[in-house]
Amino acid sequence: MPLTASSADYGTLDATLEGLGHDLPWEMVYQARPRPALVCSACGFPMHAKTSARGARFFAHDRRSPHCPSRGESEPHRTLKRALADAARAAGHHVSVEAVAAHGGWRADVLAAGPDGHLTALEAQVSSASLDDVLQRTRRYQADGADVVWFTPFRTRWLGQVPSVLLQRPDRPDLPWRDTLETVTQFSAGPCECDPRPFWHNGVHAAWTHPAGQPISEFVDHVLHGRLVPDSRLVPYPRLHHWATPKDIQAARDHQSSRS
Description:
By secondary structure, the protein is of the alpha+beta class.
């Protein structure tokens, strides 16, 4: 029986093919003789294992299906999916690439399943998408109890409307995606030490720091383990594209309640 693969599935550094759902050494599918039977999980066409000039492991169609969902996929999209899949695996999650819901209602670029079975979709959005489309796709995940995080290098309208993160674009399309931008913010509060104290100060200085970036691998690890959550403050508008620790968000809420 042939194994299923995706054009974005590839072996991790320990040479196991977790993306296939089988614990197989890379050598058993790459240039192996006799050649193993691999088919695309999306279109059913035959595939084979390959390595890029930079050493990245992936699967390619023997003959491209005109109906395959990965048809026309850009190199930046493929490399970002690989970066997200790598990060989720390193975070101890089982990863499926181009995972499709049983009811067909959504297809995730990268679907990370935690040890408790909780699902998080990591969406690599490197092309334009409308606000309505992203909101609808986000609701489909949420209706199934799955989380979703959108990754994009564009300052789009929906960046502040759904759990999302702004990325630093690589210098070249074939280079890996490494860093987020304007991502994590922190809350701090302390006694006002101004002397003399302006009349509008209430005795406490409280503020959120300017959001700072993180490596994608570090960010994904924190999100999948709940160490970072979307910061949904409504001042001056929804800012879901910023992330913070649950402790900082609770401290900000407590501070706001103390002033009410």
